[in-house]
Write a structure and sequence with these properties.
By secondary structure, the protein is mainly β. It is built from no helices and 2 strands.
Amino acid sequence: MKAVRIHAHGPVDVLRVDKIERPKPGPKEVLIQM
């Protein structure tokens, strides 16, 4: 899964696309695929 993350304060170029593990929804939560 990919996630856009902010690694520092600053302009838009501080955003990075990282690969992360798919989160597991907790009680009363849902995971929506887009």
